[in-house]
Amino acid sequence: MTAPLTLFGGTFDPVHLGHLQVVTEAARQADLDKVYLLPCHIPPHKAGPHASPAHRLAMLQRVCQEWPLFEVDDRELRQHRPSYTVETLRQCREQDSHRPIIFILGMDSLKNLNTWFQWQELMSLCHLLVCRRGNCEEDFNLDIQALLARHQTQDPEHLKRQPCGHILLADTSIISQSSSQVRQALMQGNTPSLLPACVLAYIQQHQLYQGCKKTPASGRPC
Ligand SMILES: Nc1ncnc2c1ncn2[C@@H]1O[C@H](COP(=O)(O)OP(=O)(O)OP(=O)(O)O)[C@@H](O)[C@H]1O
Ligand SMILES: O=C(O)c1ccc[n+]([C@@H]2O[C@H](COP(=O)([O-])O)[C@@H](O)[C@H]2O)c1
After folding, report:
1. Residue 152: which residues within 8 A CB-CB, separation 6 or more?
2. Which residues approach ligand 1 with their CB closer than 6 A?
3. What is this structure's pTM?
4. What is the atom index within ligand 2 of the atom nearest the CA of 13?
5. Is residue 202 in some structural domain?
6. pLDDT tens per residue, range 151-182
7. Is position 204 within any domain?
8. Which of 142, 153, 183, 220 has the most CB atoms less than 10 A away?
């Protein structure tokens, strides 16, 4: 079986060490040696983004220069419409119907998965590799409980042996950081914690996020 195509979707406004650390750990647990950071153009479920697509992409590219695990997949940025994951995955699937596709997401995203566009199609297109997230109880609603009952596996090998259909809850660290907290710190003139130095330097160089309005941590209910 070909090596999986592993995508980590996000708004990355901006990318922070919470993203990078938990995904590095999840990738290690699933024995993955490449993860594509997939910045969305227009996030379907939240306001913003605050920084332009070009700036968010540039920050991710700087991260990739320092973290060999990561590359950027900018396909969603090139499409000027809301970035529905199911549509992106269909595009990927058209290129190779047998290759395993793994979509990485945080626990807060998993808990809201039943609100995603055509969410019931997702498991026929990809596997889900889920990272733990601070302040996020594992109290799943009935749709997600049913999804897990049907698709959850404890065996990372399943994600590499089949093209789609499994959910692995990875045993990752809890890193309490969000892009909202980073933006808030910058707006208040503070230096955010848990931000890669290359990203902080880019933000300072381009004076990003100085006039951001306060948004709740992680931007949605968890
Ligand atoms: N600290 C973290 N730990 C685990 N997963 C995270 C963390 N931060 C973000 N994620 C996950 O990364 C993906 C992309 O997140 P996103 O780019 O929206 O960052 P965010 O920090 O949640 O942003 P915001 O605070 O603006 O809502 C989501 O699936 C989210 O659950
Ligand atoms: O497809 C959807 O309806 C959908 C709804 C919410 C989020 N997503 C995807 O989930 C990823 C994380 O989104 P966010 O809002 O947490 O940055 C990103 O790739 C989004 O495109 C997708």
Report:
1. 166, 167, 168, 169
2. 10-13, 18-19, 22, 105-106, 108-109, 131, 133, 175, 177-180, 217-219
3. 0.96
4. 17
5. no
6. 999 999 999 999 999 999 999 999 999 999 99
7. no
8. 183
